[in-house]
From TrEMBL:
Keyword Signal recorded: no
The FAD-binding PCMH-type domain, residue ranges: 46-225
Species whose genome carries this gene: Enhygromyxa salina
Protein family: Belongs to the FAD-binding oxidoreductase/transferase type 4 family.
UniProt entry keywords in alphabetical sequence: FAD, Flavoprotein, Oxidoreductase
Keyword Cell wall biogenesis/degradation in annotation: no
GO terms (BP aspect): respiratory electron transport chain
UniProt EC number: 1.-.-.-
Name recorded for this polypeptide: Putative FAD-linked oxidoreductase
Amino acid sequence: MSPHQGFRRADDDGFVERLRALIGDDVIIEGDDLAYYGSDRCRGGWPVAPGAIALPRTIEQVQAIARLCTEARVAIVPSGGRTGLTGAATATNGELVVSLERLSAILEVDGPSRLLRCQAGATVQAVQDAAVAHALTYPVDFAAKGSAQIGGTIATNAGGVKVIRHGLTRERVAGLEVVLADGQRLSLGGALVKNNTGYDLRQLFIGSEGTLGLIVEATLSLTQPPAGHVVVICSLASDAALSQLFARLRGSSLTLSAFECFDRGCVEHVVAHRGVDQAGPLAQLGPMQVLIEVEHDGDGESTQDALMELLGEAQEADELLDAVVAQTETQAQELWAWREDISESLHGHTPHKADVAVPVREVARFMSRWREAVAAALPEIPALCFGHVGDGNLHLNLLRPADVSLEEFLRRCHGFDPTMYGLVREFQGSVSAEHGIGLLKREYLGHTRSAMEIAAMRAIKQIFDPLGILNPGKLF
């Protein structure tokens, strides 16, 4: 049965009239904004067809919208910054998209408790800036932080470049305010550090992709920033050298906060995108590059010396080809930009992206197997890889050749997906590391989750959303 069966369209005249009675003119039913709010960054080939867009300004309005949708049997697609890559925020069949971008306030920063309370539409960048103003930091960090909204990052349990040191979003959520399908407001956690009183329902909503409720407010755990850090980019002789260097660093006393890999093709695309006349950050590029960040408590010189000693050992072992160390904070930011600019540099090639995870010890072997599989099945398609080695998360990219239509490119890529996700399954990995399942990966959920786990998820969904109006067709 279709997940949309039995639902009324949000562009029905009677429904729109009732919606406007609740939130006034903050309703969109026509024009380019329908597509703008109606999809995320995923190119899955499905239609972008929301019935209407609602832009509430208060939590009370979100509650009223949920009650109306339950009564009228109109499906809801929750929407944040729409930076996801799986279609989780895409409306395909007349749903009401509820954008939370106007609920964007930073409500409170409690310095001594290291807690920040904000509305779901606040961007990650805004949260980070508010934390810095109180000499603290929100360490969940990634390239899309300027547009990604907190509610969406919680709904997908976002990771980023500092997971190896600071964990996933899940570890940073102290409390949530959630609007359920029937309009009830559920308060989960907050300022309490210890609360051992039964099930932690808060955890159910983290990573739920908007299928259990609309996250409208969050209390986030902040941390003390390091006194300083050392940032270096290295070129490596092979994929295998990546795992060997990571093992060296993990076995040391250094505080590793980032270990980001990107292949030669990624650097070449950033260079082309910038239009600069240089080969990249290093005199000698290797098949694989890695950006390393090590935190310290104030003794930057000894930290850098220890890091350089380890890199020297790697060079003697023929693992490392070249390295450059940032001498100033400006140089550190410039080195980070080579990693953070990758996604933007690939955007014009309409990439088919996969966000997967494998055991850390298997990262290098998986990348080699993936490249071999692409070369065998799609020899005409450029394949690039970058990711977060410290948690086994890889971003696999297939780029559309200029002489191949988008429709034909997607057909070929989707034809390759079973091979790719089959490889992930073989490595006992996850078909989604950061962006969730959405529409794109529903048929592959069973590659990572057992039938019993999926049945339990469906049962939980039935409790919180018995009519199935919240993000139908996503996840399952």
